[in-house]
Design brief:
Protein-Tyrosine Phosphatase, Chain A, single chain, 159 residues, 42% helix, alpha/beta
Length: 159
Amino acid sequence: MTFYTIGVYNKSEEEFFNSLIVNNIDTFCDIRQRRGVRGSKYSFVNSTRLQEKLSGLDIKYGHVIDLAPTQEIRELQKEDDHTKGILKSERQVLGDVFISEYRDRVLNKFNFELFFEKLDQAGAKKIVLFCVEESAQACHRSIVAKKLLNSYNYDIINL
């Protein structure tokens, strides 16, 4: 298996789906807690529309909510951004408190062995982890990617 990560901000619908097609992604793991985006600009990644499009591209979809940060953890990042005077859309890296709490409350409790087993059973070869932030380093998917690299020796490609 090969793992990728992708965000949607600052990508058009065409760019987003072309990234999946060009990289032959066969399995799409949505690791958001809430699977909707406000406004029309990114409505193509709202759950129903996204799943319909992926189905048409023969890409399997799964919502891996157990990898999503809780509301409390997201609030900690929001407070950190506010303290630093950074808008969420301009954030380039996650705050230390978010990283620490996400690892403790989410990542360390996630059953990666079961996750890999399910991916294997589904015939997954090229898996993308999806959340909305443009930069992987500004998103929890970077923490998941580090875990996949450091604990399971999977290379990660950020799209």
